[in-house]
Design goal:
It is built from 3 helices and 9 strands; from the N terminus they run βαββββββββαα. The chain has 212 residues and is an alpha+beta fold. It folds into 2 domains: 100 residues, no CATH class; 76 residues, no CATH class. It has a 6-stranded antiparallel beta sheet with strand order 2-3-4-5-6-7. Strands 1-8-9 form a 3-stranded antiparallel beta sheet. Strand 4 and strand 5 form a beta hairpin. Helix 2 runs antiparallel to helix 3.
Length: 212
């Protein structure tokens, strides 16, 4: 994995990982009520407050599938309209109710999450994606923990220093517990960031000494 003054991937071509890709999570759709039969909804992704993708989700009357309606464009090509149908499945839970799944359009297996690569939503295996966590250093892991806490607080814009307001319906006890965890993670990330700046400074010092 290498640090500063080293080649992290040894110059070799690596698999695309899940970081930065648009992802569709069926658990989020379910919480939003977007899986109800005869439902239209809109899913929007943003990064640091800027929109990076929007799709329309249509569930027919039978509730057995959903259709993703969006536009995509490959480099140097014209925009293309896409209507991609994804079958749904459900399995019973131990204490009642059912768990919803996507059936991946590529391999037909049950999946919680589908990723968009080249304008198509398929599972991680079909797109041959590596988990971002397998390539993370300590600061990457700290940032991911911050984003995870922010998601629990219904904040999805990806600013690792933002403290979200209390979501509607969340108890203050749970809110403050998450805020304390988020504050501690931000402080840890700040300390790691300071360490990385020191490492860069040392590396620059070595390079300057070699050039003299």
């Amino acid at each position: 994995m290498g640090g500063y003054c080293s080649t992290r991937w040894n110059g070799e071509r690596t698999r695309l990982d899940t970081a930065g890709l648009l992802r569709l999570d069926i658990r989020i759709l379910r919480r939003q009520g977007a899986l109800r039969p005869d439902t239209w909804s809109t899913q929007t992704w943003s990064r640091r407050g800027e929109p990076v993708g929007t799709i329309t989700v249509r569930v027919p009357l039978d509730g057995a599938s959903l259709t993703l309606i969006y536009r995509t464009r490959q480099a140097g090509e014209e925009w293309q309209d896409v209507a991609e149908t994804i079958d749904l499945d459900a399995t019973p839970c131990n204490y009642g109710g059912a768990r919803s799944w996507f059936l991946c359009p590529g391999c037909g297996t049950r999946r919680d999450v589908l990723f968009s690569v080249r304008g198509r939503f398929h599972c991680r295996q079909c797109h041959d994606l590596a988990y971002t966590s397998t390539r993370e250093d300590a600061m990457d892991r700290a940032t991911r923990r911050i984003w995870r806490l922010q998601e629990k607080l219904s904040y999805l814009d990806g600013d690792p220093w933002h403290i979200p307001s209390k979501p509607e319906g969340m108890t203050y006890r749970k809110y403050w517990r998450l805020i304390v965890q988020l504050r501690n993670e931000i402080l840890e990330r700040d300390a790691l960031f300071a360490d990385e700046l020191m490492a860069i400074s040392r590396c620059l010092g070595i390079l300057e000494a070699q050039l003299d």
